[in-house]
Write a structure and sequence with these properties.
single chain, 154 residues, alpha+beta, 3-stranded mixed beta sheet, 3-stranded antiparallel beta sheet, 17% strand, globular
């Protein structure tokens, strides 16, 4: 599991705009996803429809894109109900270290039914769409975080 200390060493302070411009990009989400996930609630804005643009780490974007392709191609698009974010500078829910979301190397989905330290409700097949491309799922942790997917290593 990636630590905040590893991210600080590799990427730098995520609050620094020069760090952000070096490691992140504004991903224009492909129309395929906007169509397949048109039912998804974008919780940060309270709107219906997958976000058209996502500020994301350049290392995370290709894996997330592959995972979302898996979700669509394998027929699990309807299981994605909410998009709960990728980039937000904050501390971890369970401590004082910086969340990996601060470097945009993680995303949360279906947060309302997959809260921290509760039994996750995502199907094994849906989760496999993400783990098959090399992402780590928080639902496997000793204190599960079933909404959370992140890079496995940096």
């Amino acid at each position: 599991m990636i630590t905040s200390a590893q991210c600080l060493a590799k990427f730098g302070d995520p609050r620094n705009p020069s760090v952000q411009s070096k490691i992140m990009e504004l991903w224009i989400v492909p129309q395929k996803f906007l169509t397949a996930f048109s039912h998804v609630k974008f919780t940060n804005l309270g709107t219906i429809g997958f976000p058209k643009k996502i500020f994301i780490n350049k290392l995370f974007r290709p894996l997330l894109e592959k995972a979302l392709n898996n979700v669509v191609d394998r027929g699990y698009a309807k299981e994605l109900k909410t998009w709960d974010g990728c980039f937000v500078i904050r501390k971890k829910v369970s401590g004082n270290s910086i969340s990996l979301h601060s470097w945009a190397i993680a995303c949360d989905v279906n947060a309302w039914e997959n809260g921290y330290n509760v039994k996750p409700k995502l199907s094994a097949s849906f989760v496999k769409c993400f783990t098959d491309v090399g992402l780590e799922w928080g639902g496997y942790w000793s204190k599960p975080d079933g909404m959370h997917f992140q890079l496995k290593n940096i």
